[in-house]
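Example S7 (structure tokens).
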């Protein structure tokens, strides 16, 4: 978890979801009652069909409210537990989408968070990219999926092995082609 964010929009979305759940439960009870009454021939087919339509509509509102919560960043597991959660805390836990290292943080406690503003820059250094410049005359011997060996001045005498995974179309001005190799970096060097 990187941060927690309080938001009135989150509170409203949670509240709308809980209201939709309560309404759907009430509509389900009404539908169940109408089915029993119809079975006993006390209610009309029209009343039963109206109850079915009302219940479907309520379920659609629940799905819409769930989707809104998912759009705000709530994981499906958390949405499932909202109905049983005590209190209506309007907090979203901001979680990293992958294990990594925080490279940059612009989030500050108590600051306003605006939609679209990056709060953290997270990197996964377990695999690094090597951007290569390949001369035009060597292109015939280079292809995606090919194994590459790299050496860098920072670690003299060491060789790092990777796989070429992208080749950019030719550059006419420099007569060099850029390519990218993925290189495993298990020791973080």
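Recovered sequence:
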């Amino acid at each position: 978890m990187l941060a927690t964010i309080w938001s009135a929009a989150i509170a409203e979305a949670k509240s709308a979801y809980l209201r939709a759940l309560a309404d759907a439960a009430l509509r389900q009870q009404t539908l169940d009652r109408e089915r029993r009454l119809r079975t006993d021939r006390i209610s009309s087919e029209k009343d039963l069909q109206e109850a079915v339509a009302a219940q479907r509509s309520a379920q659609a509102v629940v799905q819409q409210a769930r989707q809104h919560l998912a759009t705000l960043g709530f994981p499906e597991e958390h949405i499932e537990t909202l109905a049983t959660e005590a209190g209506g805390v309007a907090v979203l836990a901001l979680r990293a989408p992958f294990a990594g290292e925080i490279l940059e943080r612009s989030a500050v406690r108590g600051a306003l968070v605006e939609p679209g503003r990056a709060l953290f820059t997270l990197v996964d250094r377990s695999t690094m990219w090597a951007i290569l410049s390949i001369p035009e005359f060597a292109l015939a011997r280079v292809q995606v999926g090919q194994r590459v060996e790299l050496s860098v001045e920072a670690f003299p005498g060491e060789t790092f092995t990777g796989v070429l995974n992208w080749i950019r179309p030719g550059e006419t001005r420099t007569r060099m082609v850029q390519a990218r190799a993925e290189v495993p970096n298990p020791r973080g060097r």
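Notes on this example. The radius of gyration is 28 Å.
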